[in-house]
Amino acid sequence: MALRDNLIPPPGLPRRLATQNLLFGVGAGTFLTGSAVFFTRVVGLRPHEIGIGLSLAAAIALATAVPLSALTDRFGAHRMWTGGVVAQGLLFAAWPFARGFWSFLLVIACLELVATVGQAGRNVYLIEALDPETRVRTQAFSRSWLNVGWSLGAGLAALALAIDTVPAYYTLVLLNSALLLANAYFISRLPQVPRAAAGTARRRVGAVFADRPFLAVTAVCAVLTCYMTVLMEVAPLWLLHRTDAPKWWLGVMTVTNTLMATTLQVAVTRGAHTVGGAAAASRRAGLVAALGCPVYLLTGATSGVLTMVLLVVATILLTMAELWHSAGSWTFMAELPPADRRGEYIGAFRMGGSAQSMIAPASLIALAVTSGGWGWFAIAGLFLGAALLIGPVARQAARSREQLPSVPAPVPA
Hints:
Layout: H1 2-5, H2 13-43, H3 47-75, H4 77-92, H5 101-129, H6 132-163, H7 166-188, H8 212-224, H9 226-242, H10 249-264, H11 275-299, H12 304-335, H13 342-370, H14 375-402
Helix pairs in contact: 2-6, 2-7, 3-4, 3-5, 3-13, 4-5, 4-7, 5-13, 6-7, 6-10, 6-12, 8-13, 8-14, 9-12, 9-13, 10-12, 11-12, 11-14, 13-14
């Protein structure tokens, strides 16, 4: 029963939101698993063009995250979430017509922009629709079901890759387009929620950058988010170049991460619905991530089965960091922004993650792999520093939030 309670969300809005994320995961898993082949075989790109295009699109999204997310504060979360997903669905239907670098850049950049709007709308909708404890658990269920959908989508993509024809690759993007449009209809049927009243002295968009306590939380959380770069990029390269583990062991590590994210996310959210609880969860995330780094280093000096076991241990530690940090960041995004500026603040918070995605891969790969291994201690130091800082900066941000002019918050639906 306990396992079922951690896998099946309660009926009503939590279950509907989890189902929506499952559909999204199927489409995203289908496309992303086969996207590199689609871009090379169908769009006609070379590998370096894919990398340049993705980096430019990420930079555009980073620069526009705050003003685009602030649209949610003006027009409402439900409307912007629905509109963002509709736009994504239509843009994916345009992929079969893309040929060459510039059309690729146009579509991928537009997708990043509308995804920013849709994601901000979704986050604010959850904040306004659910009370804090239910919200964090619902986000945990949604993330678990997203992983299930992602796995199903990856299986569908594997089938298309096995068929290896242009029509099969068209199916990758058109299936995601259809699922996104179905998702938009599903979202449009969700209940409307009350919106926060506008502040009496509404500030210009971008005032979040004057909120230093909130930006400090954002910066520390961005450092903690490096767990993803370690799991997805640094660890695979370390295995291939610095250990004697077989290449197929990467699949075991991926399955370990997926199973943990699917079955444990809800359990680790307990108590994380307050700012203090979120800080404690984030602190645990930093500590276990720091502990995982020397374990990775150790695998460079071991051999055989011991190396393989230690790589799984390190994966478990970094996955626990992922689960705890996710729970904490959901609460920070919900509880620290002013009620009438949640979209703008969520956009700023996401900028921290985007900056990490742009800076961390090259930096952490150089520290760990290129250095020969000593850089793992530097990475562990980053995680440890973030673990020590998150409590004080979160408390300061909470105190700063209490001093802002009071704006009535909507009652959860």
